[in-house]
Design brief:
Length: about 230
Amino acid sequence: MTQGPLILVIEDEQPIRRFLRASLTAEGYQVQEAEMGGQGLRLARQQPPDLVILDLGLPDVDGQEVLKSLREWFKAPIVVLSARGQESQKVNALDYGADDYVTKPFGVAELLARLRTALRHSSGGMEATPVYTLGELHVDLGARRVVVGGEEVHLTPLEYKLLATLIKHAGKVLTHRYLLQEVWGPGHAEETHYLRVFMANLRRKLEADPARPRYLLTEPAVGYRLAGE
Ligand code: CA
């Protein structure tokens, strides 16, 4: 029997650990559990996992500190679990190198989708396919061609750069700060109004109903996510 990717779960609440173990092993993942941050760091060093699920609210150490310690050497994806309403905590976690987050309470389908996206990005699988297709939207990054429902759409160079950045990380949440630095440059990390304007333009050009976007999704107070393929 082939062994699935090893996932280390660092979470102090036993019912959530039990739920994660059952859901993940049913999908063929191997699971290791730690209920404290220090123990999680030790386990990660002993047997480096393919992905870490990290609760930010731990009793012994702040989850952000665990994240920072891990990121000093750990390159594989980290998906954090955070409580509803703690948007600044999520933004910090992403800035400290988390790949994504799931807000409690979460469903198993949502969690598994996030894990698959994170694992695919870490194995470099997305770079091999420079064509993004979802529903009516087709983007050929090689030819810089954007087509919606068979019609070619003209984007300005900055609109295109924003879209291409989102496609490079399709399925992953990107913070306002990250998008501003990637698209506008390091001096513009705080200019979130640029993003709002350009995202509205992109939605107007690409979405059937810009008020209810299917592709360009808002992550409230955190950033944006392009729907995964
Ligand atoms: Ca907790």
